[in-house]
Design a protein that fits this description.
The complex is a heterotrimer of chains A (843), B (116) and C (299). Chain A has 843 residues and is mainly α. Helices cover 66% and strands 2% of the residues of chain A. Chain C is α+β, with helices and mostly antiparallel strands and 299 residues long. Helices cover 34% and strands 21% of the residues of chain C. Chain C has a five-stranded mixed β-sheet. Chain C has a five-stranded mixed β-sheet with strand order 4-10-9-6-7. The longest helix of chain C is centred in the first third of the chain and has 37 residues, at 30-66. The chains are: A mainly alpha (843), B mainly alpha (116), C alpha+beta (299). Chains in contact: A-B, A-C, B-C.
Chain lengths: 843, 116, 299
């Protein structure tokens, strides 16, 4: 804040600074739990992720201690199984994804010239879901009932029959809870990047880091739902005995493997892309020139994002899938080499054409290069089916995977840490300690894992808790363990360095690395509102082309430099051109995210201890909190009751028909649609592939009821769309009544659906057919109820005057949900009624 | 919505790989279903109807993608707006990659029997 | 392949490091810069990976085909069925028309010098069948069977193991594999196809019937002596030829005199978590008698 007391500022500017500080203030004490600011929450995400990294690292050390010697009794086999399962789970779900999301949450608004993310309360909600889910999951370690079926949780091993304890439940519920956080951050980042860039920042002008994060966020949105569906099905199977994965009941354990790896492989790229984004940000800075081949990188990102979804079966080459099918996936896996190659060589040519300087962050980047290239090359080898058959599930794969993940994610992350620390704290870390920790981690890592390729080729399997000395693996394992501890020493030194620098670090200058990014144009440490005024940008390298920006931003020479209205504001811009479209008013600190997350944690715990009535009650309360949260929008007194904006400014977003809320709803439905498609995939997969699948001769569903429900839904949409069309023309007469009628039609649809389920007399615990059908029907029932409920609330809001011709955004958002329901309803009707009826009941 | 069809719109960045993805799902799903419903005798090796259908769909998709590559190149030369040229060129690259990827992934159809 | 990997990675490292060493940078126009960039990206980023993966594909295609269970031109290959259990292997040699299968456990005897089709299944969770010396591995999935064709070039003894994590004793799921000349293999199989010798009832046999026979089959064991009054959902290894097997407990300890009795008393310490209940309620002497009798069971 020292800058804001700068003597060179006029009194007017100083008043502006004080006003912004007041409106954007983070409460202290207990009130700190209500903070929604992205800077604070991004740091919380990263700090929490770092703690989980230490826990995961500790587990890794336990593993290496056990394997250091043959026939070691350090841990029992049962403990060892828990430890390696949790090591993988913690590192993937509680460290890698959240810490990268934290970085994106912290960095993206600063890079694209926004004051916050587009849904600040969602950021807070996501953080609490992550924190509580992580605590629930790790607590299982201390209760000695940690999951022990491997981080991929293959059924039937993870099923009730073969894992009777609570371990698998901890995993399924805890991870699903954490994934809510990943998804909410994913949705929010997509919309923020597309819709809140500062004036003039056209899509092809935004920093490459934003492209990488956009791809990562979209991949999260599409890639996580299959696992969420899988987890729901497996938890249902464990809790009630529904045989989705049990061949005896017409299920198939391979369905779980598909759902898991549909998520699991993109996950690797979800982790790699932000890492590559850091590399692409740092390389130009230290090469002292703009990146060359920007378009090539964008194309490579898009290709990676897509192709990574075409690879999932390569984790299942040994599951006995026809060889032609595995050949498709094998070929697709090799294709990833091309976008990777493009990126490596774009970075190389940037260095080649620049005048690169060495620095601590650059050292980590070189470490990344060495490790990642090797990991990538062994990856190409693994894509080969015959080779894969040989080394699958050996330590060779363990080595490969750590080269890719540690090389592709941890090293860039640490490069980013050293690069951005001065931005966060305003101080420089120690060059000497940093170099020591780099060499310890780099050498320790290679000692551990380079030799492990060889151990794997010698035939050492993964996930064995000990081995016989006669195998001749002793010395290699001992070397790996020594390297592991060396790496741990490096991490300890790194923590020391970071901790010390907050106190003893030299103060950093405004732009210590002479970087081009906008994040260096703000005071250090950053103010909650990031920028006093939002500049118009036409360049990819703002601080190189306009070095005066830090000063002019501070002096309020740019956009949105007013605060008398008392609102938190940022620009809403056109996703393509960056032209201004609206002023987005952001919500302030709120208790609702915490309360909603707490009740969801209660749901999670009560499912864990199998108190189902409590879980149902808590779910209702959580929905109540979420709806109450949504109440404070639009023209609500806590949001934006007064719609006046400064002359020449675009309107407030809640006063338009295409605000970011519409985008958030659409992106959420991308996630929802991915879940729905996974469900359809499950239905058709079991139908065609499961050996014992039983399809009854006639559908158990009463078609008149199903069609009736569909008609109610369709009529509801026709009416709602008409209401929205009239709003667009500025008419809101009888809007409230209309919305109530739509709500009643939604309720009618729900009632008819409940009738259908009731009359079908399904036996979900006996046949996978009935179980899947029930889940599909419940899915559309939940959506019908949600559609009705939201229309009801909108009707009420019209009555309060929060929604109407003046503030028309929300009905448009709700209409999106109804359109989604329409598509899902009728396509599901075809899949579960028309097709079985036409094709007839066969097994 | 018609502006989405213009080849200078960034939606075409994802167009090529979306087509590739649909094709990929279709051949993988089609193969699985065909092998469940009507598996050909292993004696026939790779000379089965399934292989022929898969091969033709591969060629068809690749030709469509190559045409789109060409169309994007043309669109990039026609436009004067830098942004539009940027996206048309990047899309052309990705369409070309998708065409290559289609041929590469579909290539085993020529010599592997479908269902074992 | 390894050499290419090393050369490519070292080359890329060297190029990157070189950029830091160069002192003299020629001035370039944007056009020239573009040309330099295109040269690197097209050469290194596109041509290099494309050439490598196409080469790999050409190399991979015939290798993969050789592993397919395609019909052979001359005779049908030998078929052996292997079923994974937590945490042991059931091995079955299918009998002909009206003939019973030969069943054994944790020991796989196969003919050498000819392809063998292994039909793989699982009785409980997903396991994976892997004979590292012979190549590929294949998952064993409950509810379905899959076939993998392997060939041992010459007679010999080697190890096999479960390669898919399958629970507490995944580590202790080893398979002893012997490849025999065709005639030795036929003889080995014929011995086991012969009708079992009758079993004389005595105290040991009755004890076996009471404590063990509900889960463990021994061919020719009198049905009336089998006490099956507790509920159990697992199956134990077939013991018909246990005396002839080289190891106990799926490779946990070598078969020697007294080994079975020792195993029966200490199996939960030797292989913690295995599915056989502890025998604390049975007198040591009885266990020793059962062990001694089992050791006599050879064809």
């Amino acid at each position: 804040m020292s800058e804001s007391k700068d003597a060179s500022l006029t009194p007017e500017t100083r008043r502006l600074h004080e006003g912004l500080a007041r409106v954007w203030a983070n409460p202290r004490g207990l009130g700190a739990l209500t903070v929604v600011n992205h800077t604070t929450l991004g740091l919380r995400f990263m700090a929490t992720g770092a703690v989980f990294f230490l826990i995961g690292g500790l587990l890794a050390m336990l593993i290496r201690t056990q394997l250091a010697f043959p026939d070691n009794n350090f841990m029992s086999n049962e403990t060892y199984n828990q430890v390696f399962t949790m090591h993988g789970t913690v590192m993937m779900f509680l460290f890698a994804i959240p810490i990268l999301e934290g970085l994106a949450i912290y960095m993206i608004p600063k890079m694209i010239g926004a004051r916050d993310l587009v849904c600040p309360r969602l950021t807070a909600f996501g953080y609490f879901c992550y924190l509580f889910g992580g605590i629930i999951l790790t607590s299982s370690l201390f209760l000695d009932m940690a999951p022990n079926s491997g981080w991929f949780m293959y059924t039937p091993l993870s099923s009730g029959d073969y894992s009777p304890g609570s371990g698998s439940d901890f995993w399924l519920l805890g991870i699903t809870f954490v994934e809510i956080s990943a998804l909410s951050a994913g949705v929010e980042l997509v919309v923020s990047i597309l819709r809140t860039r500062t004036e003039g920042m056209a899509l092809h002008k935004m920093p490459l880091f934003a492209w990488y994060i956009l791809a990562m966020a979209l991949m999260i949105v599409v890639g996580f739902p299959p696992l969420i569906l899988g987890s729901i099905l497996l938890e249902l199977a464990r809790a009630t005995g529904m045989p989705f994965f049990d061949p005896a009941g017409g299920g198939d354990p391979v369905l779980w493997a598909h759902l898991f790896w549909l998520f699991g492989h993109p996950e690797v790229y979800i982790i790699f892309l932000p890492g590559a984004g850091i590399v692409a940000t740092l390389i130009p800075v230290f090469a002292r020139r703009p990146i060359v081949g920007y378009g090539w990188v964008v194309a490579a990102i898009v290709i990676m994002g897509f192709v990574s979804f075409g690879l999932w079966v390569h984790h299942m080459f040994t599951l006995g899938i026809p060889q032609l099918a595995t050949a498709f996936f094998s070929a697709a896996s090799m294709l990833v080499a091309i976008p990777t190659g493009i990126q490596i060589f774009v970075w190389l040519s940037t260095l080649w054409l620049g005048r690169p300087v060495m620095s601590l962050p650059m050292l980590w980047i070189l470490g990344f290069l060495v490790i990642f290239v090797l990991g990538g090359l062994t990856g190409v080898m693994l894509a080969l089916v015959p080779f894969n058959w040989q080394v699958h599930d050996t330590h060779f794969v363990v080595a490969h995977m750590h080269y890719v993940l540690v090389g592709g994610m941890l090293f860039p992350l640490l490069a980013g840490l050293y690069y951005w620390l001065p931005q966060v704290s305003g101080r420089m870390p120690s060059e000497r300690l940093g170099k020591w920790s780099f060499w310890l981690i780099f050498l320790g890592f290679n000692i551990t894992f380079l030799i492990m390729h060889w151990t794997g080729l010698l035939g050492m399997r993964r996930r064995v808790f000990t081995y016989d000395t006669a195998m001749g693996w002793d010395i290699y394992n001992l070397i790996s363990s020594v390297g592991g501890f060396m790496m741990a020493g490096g991490v300890a030194l790194l923590i020391l360095d970071v901790a010390l620098h907050f106190r003893f670090g030299k103060p950093a200058s405004q732009n210590p690395w002479n970087a081009d990014g906008l994040e260096w144009a703000m005071p250090k440490p950053p103010t909650p509102y990031n920028f006093v005024s939002l500049p118009r940008l036409e360049t990819r390298n703002p601080l190189w082309d306009a070095p005066e920006l830090p000063r002019t931003i501070l002096e309020g020479q740019h956009g949105l430099a007013t605060i008398d209205h008392g609102r938190r504001e940022t620009w809403g811009s056109d996703p393509l051109t960056g032209k201004l479209r609206e002023v987005i008013h952001l919500p302030t600190n709120s208790w609702w995210p915490l309360l909603a997350a707490l009740t969801l944690a209660l749901v999670c715990i009560s499912l864990l201890v199998r108190l189902y009535p409590l879980a149902a009650a808590a779910t209702l309360v959580a929905v109540g909190f979420l709806l109450r949260w949504s109440w404070e929008n639009g023209a609500h007194p806590k949001a934006a009751p007064d719609a006046t904006v400064a002359p020449g400014q675009p309107p407030l977003h809640s006063r338009t028909m295409n605000g970011p809320g519409v985008w958030t709803m659409s992106v959420s439905h991308l996630a929802n649609g991915s879940l729905y498609l996974s469900l359809l995939f499950g239905w058709f997969y079991l139908w065609t592939v499961a050996p014992e699948w039983q399809m009854p001769a006639a559908s158990p569903l009463a078609w008149p009821l199903l069609v009736g429900a569909g008609v109610a839904l369709t009529l509801g949409i026709l009416l709602l769309a008409k209401l929205v069309r009239r709003l667009r023309r500025g008419h809101d007469a009888s809007l409230g009544t209309g919305l109530f009628v739509v709500a009643i039609l939604g309720a009618l649809q729900s009632v008819l659906l409940i009738g259908t389920i009731w009359l079908a007399k399904l036996a979900p615990t006996e046949s996978a057919h009935d179980a899947t059908l029930l889940v599909a029907l419940l899915y559309i029932l939940i959506h019908a109820l949600l559609g009705a409920l939201l229309c009801l609330l909108q009707g009420l809001r019209v009555g309060y005057g929060f929604v109407g011709a003046e503030a028309p955004l929300e009905p448009v958002v709700v209409l999106r949900l109804w359109y989604y329901n329409l598509v899902v309803y009728w396509s599901l009707f075809v899949a579960i009624w028309v097709m079985p009826t036409v094709l007839g009941g066969t097994s | 919505m018609s502006h989405l069809l213009r080849l200078t719109h960034p939606i075409h960045l994802v167009g090529g790989l979306t087509l590739w993805g649909i094709w990929f799902v279709a051949i993988y799903g089609g193969l699985s279903v065909a092998c469940t419903v009507a598996p050909p005798s292993p004696d026939r090796d790779a000379l089965t109807g399934i292989n022929v259908v898969l091969g033709v769909s591969t060629l068809g998709t690749a030709i469509l993608l190559l045409w789109l590559t060409w169309a994007c190149m043309k669109a990039s030369r026609r436009t004067q707006v830098r942004r539009e040229r940027f996206f048309a060129l990047a899309s052309a690259g990705i369409y070309l990659f998708s065409a290559g990827a289609t041929l590469f992934v579909g290539y085993p159809v020529m010599f592997l029997p479908p269902c074992i | 392949m390894l050499i290419v990997t090393v050369v490519v990675s070292l080359g890329v490292y060297a190029l990157w490091l070189y950029t830091f060493r160069r002192r003299h940078q020629p001035e370039r126009t944007p056009r020239e810069e573009r040309r330099v960039m295109l040269r690197w990206v097209l050469g290194g980023g596109i041509l290099l990976p494309v050439v490598s993966i196409v080469a790999l594909m050409i190399f991979a295609a015939p290798t993969g085909r050789g592993m397919l269970p395609l019909p052979l031109t001359d005779a049908d290959p030998e078929r052996i069925e292997v079923i994974g259990h937590q945490w042991w292997w059931e091995v079955r040699y299918p009998g002909g028309e009206g003939e019973a299968d030969v069943v054994t456990a944790n020991r796989l005897v196969m003919p050498a010098g000819e392809p063998v089709d292994f039909r793989l299944g699982s009785a409980d969770v997903i396991h994976a069948f892997w004979l590292p010396r012979l190549g590929g591995k294949r998952d064993m999935v409950p509810g379905r069977f899959s076939t993998i064709r392997l060939e041992a070039d010459s007679p010999g003894v080697f190890g096999g193991q479960c390669a898919e994590f399958c629970g507490a004793q995944h580590t202790g799921m080893q398979l002893h594999v012997e490849a025999l000349e065709r005639e030795d293999y036929d003889a080995w199989l014929a011995e086991r196809r012969a009708a079992p010798e009758p079993i004389e009832e005595d105290d040991t046999i009755r004890a076996f019937g009471e404590h063990c026979a509900a889960c463990h089959r021994v061919a020719g064991f009198p049905k009336v002596l089998v006490v099956d009054d507790v509920e159990h959902d697992i199956e134990g290894p077939d013991l018909t030829d246990i005396g002839s097997r080289p190891t106990l407990g799926a490779g946990e300890l070598p078969m020697e005199e007294g080994a079975i009795a020792y195993w029966l008393q200490h199996h939960q310490t030797l292989k913690p978590g295995n599915r056989m209940p502890p025998h604390n309620h049975i007198e040591t002497e009885t266990l020793q008698d059962i062990g001694a009798w089992l050791e006599t069971l050879e064809p």
